[in-house]
What we know:
The complex is a heterodimer.
Chain A: H1 4-11, H2 17-27, H3 37-44, E1 49-51, E2 59-65, E3 70-71, H4 75-86, E4 100-103, E5 108-115, H5 119-128, E6 145-146, H6 160-171, E7 186-188, E8 203-210, E9 213-220, E10 233-240, H7 244-258, H8 269-276, H9 278-289, E11 299-300, E12 319-322, E13 328-332, E14 338-340, H10 341-354, E15 359-361, E16 367-372, H11 374-381, H12 385-388, H13 395-398, E17 400-402, H14 417-430, E18 442-445, E19 459-468, E20 471-480, E21 492-499, H15 503-517, H16 524-529, H17 533-538
Parallel strand pairs in A: 6-7, 7-8, 17-18, 18-19
Antiparallel strand pairs in A: 1-2, 2-5, 3-15, 4-5, 4-14, 8-9, 8-11, 9-10, 12-13, 13-16, 15-16, 19-20, 20-21
Chain B: E1 5-8, E2 13-16, E3 19-23, E4 27-30, E5 40-53, E6 56-65, E7 71-73, E8 77-83, E9 86-89, E10 103-106
Antiparallel strand pairs in B: 1-2, 2-3, 4-5, 5-6, 5-10, 6-7, 6-8, 8-9
Amino acid sequence: MATDVERWKDEVYGNDIREHLFRFAEEGWDAIPEDEHDEWFERFKWWGLYHQRKGQESYFMMRIGTPNGVLEPGQLRTVAEVADEYARGPVDNPEFGAAYCDWTTRQSIQLHWIKLEDIPDIFEKLEADGLSTQQACGDSWRNIVGCPVAGKDTHEHIDAWPVAEELHETFKGNDEHSNLPRKWKVSVTGCDQGCGQGDINDLAFEPAEKHGELGFNVRIGGGLARKEPRFARDVDVWVPEEKVVDIADAATRLFHDHGDRDNRFNARIKFLVDEWGAEKVRRVLDEEYADWDLETAGEDLRDQYTYNAGGDEHGDHVGVHEQPDGNYYVGLNVLVGRQGVDDVIELADLADEYGSGEARLTQRQNIIVTDVPESDLDDFLAEDLLEDYSPDPHPFMRGSIACTGTEFCSLSIVETKNRQVRYARWLKENVDVPDGVTDFHIHLSGCTASCAQPQIADVSLRGMKTRKDGEPVEALDVGLGGGLGEHPQFADWVEMRVAADEVPGYIQNLLAAFDEQREGEETFREFVAARDEDALGDLADPEETDYEDPYMHNTKMTWYPYADEDDLDASPAPTDGDGETISADD
Amino acid sequence: MATRLRLLDDAAWVSVNDDRAAGASEVWPVADSFCACPLAWLAVEAFVEVGADGRRVDARATGHCVTCGEAGTTSWLPVGRVTDDGFSTATGVRRSRQGSPTSACRTEP
């Protein structure tokens, strides 16, 4: 039986949603019929709009998809100006202020507190500068990710940027592919380091050679959500660069036809690959969807992958790196991926002054300024802003990633971003970094949706609850030893329901045990891999320290966890276009 | 009048008549046999089914007891009641009902 979501999609979906969205925006919040809220909020996702959680009715999160994370000259400023003018809520965030931009793990941008009435003006401003929210969410081709420095990378074998760009232009707004059974995440890697993170995407292109020609091997069925993580499976297909769009079209149509539309829990293609196996996926692709004979896989570069591979690695794009053209790109660390708008505007100025004006977003929530001439490097690196967004950060600041959390998200179980900021600062002040560790990944995800990609971190944190001193408190499950590379590995979950204020103490004890017990130059990932579950569980205990956590109460049961009056009953929502509370009697 | 019931956003919350009635992260005191505790304190991680009998809305949830850590899926527990003024959320100890609601919606709609 068709689900409600499938029925709603059959009625109105894709590009057609826009005219309805604009009509509602013009007429105001009350114009959305009360008995149609669920269906319209589900549809709005296709245009990058998520209705914020309970207590924040009438406000939306807006996601802007920037393919491959590329922000062309001028676009960073446009995003900041939109955030400054439209992404301001009733209460400031104590760490980040009144307006801010989030850089996400899929190289997109998220703004919060967007009002329905402002959406047409925002779209006009974004689209005038080549930016869009189209298909940033919903059951469709999502933002295409890849090597964030594609085209500007000395490790590159194929420039993945024009490939990602062509996929973006082909599949965004394409009515034939606008209504898929579920989200469809695509990655393009062109380098020998593996920084496209193809393994955790629905469809992955990875560089490979065949007949002396560089092209791409295809992998299908990766994803992290719902305690069902999968690495993308090798379907034994190689395509030359000019066939990438064709095989992507074939794979998407296969998903369109065979993805499970009766059960959204089973709809992602990873479950179809589980059911069919990679061999059948290949056979069906070849016989029913590709109009040419598929080639078998070529020789890949996976044995060279260093990105998040656990060694003396290329764990991110932070730092100063030479481009093939002799200029430099400078990767700046953005703690938990959130920047206040004043800082974003200043960074846009600096990108104009020292680089080409281009900026790029990474899959580790950081931002890169490209095209800086060598002669300007020292002056750029001396800018005050880079003290807060360092190209040479402390390992605990560098490795911290967090999802949106209960601040705005319906799915999350715990507060995340502000907590992870406090964790990183405390760890920096109190924990010795083991010798040789320059990059230590700690990812905090508020729930099993895994937006912070916890399973591929050294220390994985996932939102939970426990009881402490007689009271329910926010807690985290702790996993260890995840990462990518030639042999990707999901974290082992070793400590469950650790009270959130005891997690920094746990990490301190864990790293002390690592430092004491490691053999020689053994990396943390090797150290974890060498131990069984019991041994990992015995490594360290959670512990209270002088770390203080102001978010131990149930932050989801507030209307906004940082408001002075945070009870749900104190919420000003829903509000009108001026931010004034709409009375239930109106 | 029929009550519209849905589980949305990866079954993170229960929608009753297009309004959010319950969500992941809530902690419910649960009587009966979810775990060995005399009273389980269930941290709701997601929902499995939602159903209604007349005005009463029930759901089955997945989660764990924050006291003992036992994880699993509950039997049918009250979420609240549809009233003439909207939806009234259940409070206090939740006890499982006998049998299934007459109309149920499993997983996401």
